[in-house]
Design brief:
One of its GO terms (molecular function) is hydrolase activity, acting on ester bonds. This is GDSL esterase/lipase 7-like. With 268 residues, this protein is of the alpha/beta class. Helices cover 46% and strands 6% of the residues. The protein is built from 11 helices and 4 strands, in the order H-H-H-E-H-H-H-E-H-H-E-H-H-E-H. Helix 6 (96-116) packs parallel to helix 8 (148-171).
Length: 268
């Protein structure tokens, strides 16, 4: 995991397994990058590395079990599966209905693995409207403000997610699964951006090497100065301000969390 010996001694404060361009399926994510740690590999790391280090910080298996049962596991996946990976690789292999069910099946498998390893509190977010990203709206011919073909694809997956989490909670004793609706957060911002402090909802803040604002950010070029009022930092990823907004709403806003909000989950 690239952790130092000092980091491993403080591992109980939390570990981030995020990997850029990763996906739910084993083969996903490698379209853009070779060294991608997909979700099943992230769970492997938790099992094979983190768990070993955690055991050394507790004086009994009972205390470790209690610690894990109180810990929060935040899962945010499937954006890359439903975005560029589907367009480049999976579109010719699967219908979107079949593909969405395949993603849900893999997510279920890994969540159950985490439960077996001791996890009990899960906060699982859905996927944002990818058809509204600067890259999508500037590279795909469409009508309306967003590429609805992509958003419908995302919605098929998102519609399956709440049922999965409900089924897992009913079948896994002592578990608590909370669904976070990132898609709705974006919808709310798009409908009334100024009420959330945004002025630009559909353009990239950073500039690529060709000056098109549809590719990754160019090195050594300053981004826009008004990035706090932008929904997107680059053509694919939301800005820090947008991340802060949905984190804040997840904490207390039960209109985008089900069946409880994030603070209630942490206190449960």
């Amino acid at each position: 995991m690239g952790m130092s010996k000092i980091d491993r001694k403080t591992i109980s404060t939390g570990v981030n397994y995020a990997s850029g361009s990763s996906g739910l399926l084993p083969q996903n994510g490698h379209v853009l990058h070779k060294n991608v740690i997909n979700f099943f590999q992230q769970v492997d790391l938790f099992e094979n590395s983190t768990m070993k280090d955690l055991k050394g910080t507790f004086d009994s298996p009972k205390r470790l079990k209690k610690y894990l049962s109180k810990s929060l596991f935040f899962i945010h996946h499937a954006s890359n599966d439903l975005g560029v990976t589907f367009e480049v690789e999976m579109k010719k292999k699967y219908s979107i209905d079949t593909y969405a069910k395949l993603l849900i099946k893999e997510l279920s498998k890994q969540l159950q693995r985490l439960y077996t390893l001791g996890a009990r509190k899960f906060f699982v977010s859905n996927v944002s409207p990818l058809g509204c990203s600067p890259y999508s709206i500037n590279t795909i011919i469409h009508s309306g403000p967003c590429v609805e073909e992509i958003n419908k694809r995302v919605s098929l997956y998102n519609d399956l997610l709440p049922g999965l989490l409900e089924n897992l909670q009913s079948s896994l004793s002592g578990s608590k699964f909370v669904h976070g609706d990132i898609y709705k957060v974006f919808q709310d911002v798009f409908e009334s951006p100024e009420s959330y402090g945004f002025k630009d909802v559909n353009s990239s803040c950073c500039i690529d090497k060709n000056g098109t604002r549809i590719q990754v950010c160019a090195p050594n070029i300053d981004p826009c100065e008004d990035r706090k009022t932008r929904v997107f930092f680059d053509p694919f990823h939301p800005s820090e301000a947008m991340h802060f907004l949905w984190a804040r709403r997840f904490l207390k806003d039960s209109s985008i969390c089900s069946p409880i909000n994030l603070i209630q989950l942490m206190q449960a």
